[in-house]
Automatic annotation (TrEMBL):
It comes from the Eukaryota. This is Homeobox-leucine zipper protein. Gene3D superfamilies: Homeodomain-like. GO terms for molecular function: DNA binding. It is found in: Nucleus. Keywords: DNA-binding, Homeobox, Nucleus, Transcription, Transcription regulation. Residues 184-244 form the Homeobox domain. The lineage of its organism: Eukaryota, Viridiplantae, Streptophyta, Embryophyta, Tracheophyta.
Length: 332
DNA sequence: TCATGCTCACCTATTACTTCA
DNA sequence: GCTGAAGTAATAGGTGAGCAT
């Protein structure tokens, strides 16, 4: 018996979700997304430096590099490699509309439908959650020359050694610093992701279960989440996947164990039968060669004695009643 | 070429919070 | 309204890999 065990199953898959999100949205509304893949030449000289450091490693599934460009600034990029991904108006394709910018309140991010819980939910989500870019990640893209940093960043505020995730941000999507926010922020705030956000992340996860920094950033912007939140979501999602897979494997191994136990019992019984047969009818041993046959399907053994001998009653109902291909074992 | 330190992404365990029956 | 279980966002600590020196 062969047992196959698969734990984890993290087979890297090519990145598809971004392209997918493009096609799924561009045909419906005026909102599309523009993604530029791979071939680029040092956008503002910043990203290259960024990527040349440690960030270029860890590319398990990172087959593509994504650069988010805005406006018509993609001159340094091979136009043939562009995919629609970032929000832009089809009517005025040169003017991009970013959902995280105040003037773009009328457009929906890709993947967020305009139905119930769609735009309204997104706007609500924006008001509640947006605005935040972690310091380290914001700093990575916050070069004044970087086009990627054209949206306002939010930098965390540390209070009592803990970071206030809702620091300053004057973006209109940002959550206003209310009295509620001014409460003691030592207790960590846990924000529930909306259904739309979860669904979109889930779709992304189906395409690839790890993110490179660019994908993380793009996803974070699409969903108006902090990159850290996207990262954490993927980590937790991987953990859940692994846990579920472990449970499945455990169940499978449990059944295998039961099957093998049964098999072991049956074989023991078979062995006892044969031993009993051998001890109770020793005269058989005096006879010419006896043929022991085994049915490969039911795996029971029967003796096919020479014509003059009657097979033992204990085993006649096995091979004799089967029309199976028998394996003959010559015994003495 | 090897050792070392830094940075990053990831994993795992755990905590803290939310939702729901 | 209270409570416990389940789900999950977030945190902390550890590990391994790539890179620079």
């Amino acid at each position: 018996m062969e047992l196959a065990l698969s734990l984890g199953g993290d087979i890297p898959k090519p990145i598809l979700f971004l392209e997918k999100s493009s096609s799924s949205n561009s045909s419906t509304k005026d909102v599309g997304f523009c993604m530029v893949l791979g071939k680029y030449s040092s956008i503002e000289g910043h990203e290259d430096n960024e990527l040349s450091a440690g960030r270029r490693k860890r590319s398990r599934n990172h087959h593509q590099e994504i650069i988010i460009s805005k406006g018509s600034s993609s001159s340094s990029i091979d136009p043939s490699l562009q995919l629609d991904l970032l929000p832009f108006s089809r009517n005025t394709s040169s003017q991009l509309h970013f959902p995280w910018l105040s003037q773009n309140l009328g457009t929906e991010p890709a993947g967020i439908t305009n139905g119930p819980g769609g735009k309204a939910a997104l706007l609500d989500m924006n008001r509640r959650q947006l605005g935040a870019e972690e310091a380290e990640e914001g700093a990575a893209l916050s070069s004044p020359n970087s086009e990627i940093s054209s949206f306002q960043m939010k930098f965390p505020i540390y209070r009592n050694g803990k970071r206030d995730e809702w620091g300053n941000n004057q973006n209109c999507f940002s959550r206003a610093i209310s009295d509620e926010d001014n409460n003691d922020s030592s207790a960590r705030k846990k924000l529930r992701l909306t259904k739309e956000q979860s669904a979109f992340l889930e779709e992304s996860f189906k395409e690839h279960n790890t993110l490179n920094p660019k994908q993380k950033l793009a996803l974070a912007k699409q969903l108006n989440l902090r990159p850290r939140q996207v990262e954490v979501w993927f980590q937790n999602r991987r953990a859940r996947t692994k846990l579920k897979q472990t449970e499945v494997d455990c169940e499978y191994l449990k059944k295998c164990c039961e099957t093998l136990t049964e098999e072991n019992k049956r074989l023991h019984k078979e062995l006892q039968e044969l031993r009993a047969l051998k001890s109770s009818q020793p005269f058989y041993m005096q006879l010419p060669a006896t043929t022991l046959t085994m049915c490969p399907s039911c795996e029971r053994v029967a003796t096919t004695a020479p014509a003059a001998n009657t097979p033992p009653a204990a085993t006649t109902n096995t091979a004799a009643n089967h029309n199976h291909k028998l394996i003959s074992l010559m015994t003495k």
